[in-house]
From TrEMBL:
Belongs to the universal ribosomal protein uL24 family. This is Large ribosomal subunit protein uL24. Keywords: Ribonucleoprotein, Ribosomal protein. One of its GO terms (cellular component) is ribonucleoprotein complex. It comes from Candidatus Electrothrix communis. PANTHER family: MITOCHONDRIAL RIBOSOMAL PROTEIN L24.
Amino acid sequence: KMRQGLTSLLINDQVEVITGKDKGRVGKILRLDRAANRAFVERINMIKKHQKPVDAQQPGEIIEREASIHISNLKLVCPECAKTVRIGKKILEDGVKVRMCKSCGATLEKSKK
């Protein structure tokens, strides 16, 4: 069963790592794995992957890429107040449920087109 607070992050959100080897670093969410509650954040938790050669022409190489990080170790950065904040939900007058910053009260949703 998925916990309520962990589903509030979306792709392209700015987040800060709050614990672990990359503590204090800020990045953008590239992908989310909601089943495992993990996120891939730009330039955070980098790993080296050893790639075997496919054929004689293409040599093997070492690729650096992002590994997933548990979303409980991430905190959203509010674009209005530029602080790491907790997220609340509120319902607007037109009935749309949006995320809001608990610190400054700003709405965190981009306009849907």
